[in-house]
Amino acid sequence: MSVRPSSRPKIPRPQRRGETVAEGGLAPGVDYGPLTDLLGYRLRRAQIRIYQDFLDAMDPWSITPPRFSAMTLIRHNTGMKLTELARAMGIARSGAVEVVDSLEKLGYVQRASSPTDKRAHSLSLTSRGAEVLDEVTTLIRRHDEKVSASLSEMEQAQLRDLLEKLGQVAHSHP
Amino acid sequence: MSVRPSSRPKIPRPQRRGETVAEGGLAPGVDYGPLTDLLGYRLRRAQIRIYQDFLDAMDPWSITPPRFSAMTLIRHNTGMKLTELARAMGIARSGAVEVVDSLEKLGYVQRASSPTDKRAHSLSLTSRGAEVLDEVTTLIRRHDEKVSASLSEMEQAQLRDLLEKLGQVAHSHP
C-alpha cells in the first residue's frame, strides 16, 4: 500500500485544528456523574476509542468513519441519491449533504444530474475515489482486526451476539 | 414526572424536519458491502438503534444524547469551561460550541464571564435546566434499563467487560 502525504487534501479535522480528544473517551479529573453507569454511554465511549484509533490510521486520506461508510455505500449501490444515502447511513439529510460535500472537495465523489429528474443527483466515486477506497478498505479491515484481536474468537462472537440482541429488543415495542 | 409538551422549545431534529432514520440503522434493499463485517460498524449500528429509541423518549424536552451528556458534565463540574467540556465529551471544540448554543437557546444552560479571564465563560445550568435534567435523568435510567433488560444480568456484565477490554487494547500501542 502506498501512503502519499504530499497529495493529502487540506480538510480540517479536530487534531489539525490543535484540539485534543480525550484518551479512551474519558478526561482525567472530570466527574462523569451518572453517565458512567449507563450502557448507552459505555457503548459510546467504546466507539470514541475505536474512532480515535481509526482517525490516526486514516490521516493520509482525510477519511473519517462517516466518509468511509458513505464511499462504501456509494460504491455498492449504483446511482444512489443523497436521500437514499442518508437513509442507508441512518443520519439526517443535512448530515449526508455535509459528508458528500467534503468527499466532493477531496475529489473522491461526484454528483451527476439524473436525465429523468434534474434535481436528483446520482452519486458515484471518481477513479481517484475508487483507488483511495481500495487502499483504505484494506487498512480498515486491518484496523478492525487489530481492535478485535483484543478479544478471543469466542469473545468476539459473544460481543456480536450481545450487540445484535440489544438492538433487536430495543425495537420490539411500539 | 410531568411532561409538558406545550412548553417544548422548537429546535429542529431529524424527525421534525420530516426525515426518516433507518430502522435498526439498516435500510432495506441497500448493499452495505464490507461494512457488515466490521466490528466498528456493528457498534455504530447498535448505538444508532439505542439512540433512535432515546430520541423518541426525550422528545418533549428536545434532549439528544450529546445534550444530555453536556448537561450532566456541567452539573457535576462547577465552573466548567467550553474547552474542558469538549475534552470531557471527547469531541471537537466546534462540536461543543454547537451543543452549548442549542442548550442556551433552550434555556437550559448559561455562560457567565470569568472575572479572571474575560474570554473564558464558565458554564452552568439554569434552574429550568436543573429541573429538566432531573426529570430526563430519571427517564434515561429507565430507558437504559429497558434496553439492558434485553440481556440477562450475566450478559450485561459480559457486555460491560467485553467493551472495557476492547477499549483498553485499542490504546495499548503507540
What does this structure look like?
2 copies of one chain form a homodimer. Chain A is mainly alpha-helical and 174 residues long. Helices cover 53% and strands 6% of the residues of chain A. The first copy, chain A, has helices at residues 39-58, 65-76, 82-89, 93-105, 127-148, 153-170, and strands at 109-113, 121-125. Chain A has a two-stranded antiparallel ribbon. In chain A, strand 1 and strand 2 form a beta hairpin. The longest helix of chain A is centred in the C-terminal third of the chain and has 22 residues, at 127-148. Chains A and B meet through helix 1, helix 2, helix 3, helix 5 and helix 6 of A and helix 1, helix 2, helix 3, helix 5 and helix 6 of B.
Largest sheet of chain A, in brief, is: 2 strands, antiparallel
Radius of gyration of chain A: 19 Å
Q: How far do the termini of chain A sit from each other? A: 48 Å
Percent helix among the residues of chain A?
40-55%
Figure out the total of helices of chain A: 6
| Record field, number of beta strands of chain A | 2
The greatest interface here is: A-B, 78 and 78 residues
In short:
Chain A has 6 helices and 2 strands; from the N terminus they run H-H-H-H-E-E-H-H. Chain A has helices at residues 39-58, 65-76, 82-89, 93-105, 127-148, 153-170; strands at 109-113, 121-125. In chain A, strand 1 and strand 2 (121-125) form a beta hairpin.
Q: Topology, please?
A:
Two copies of one chain form a homodimer.
Chain A: H1 39-58, H2 65-76, H3 82-89, H4 93-105, E1 109-113, E2 121-125, H5 127-148, H6 153-170
Antiparallel strand pairs in A: 1-2
Helix pairs in contact in A: 1-5, 2-4, 2-5, 3-4
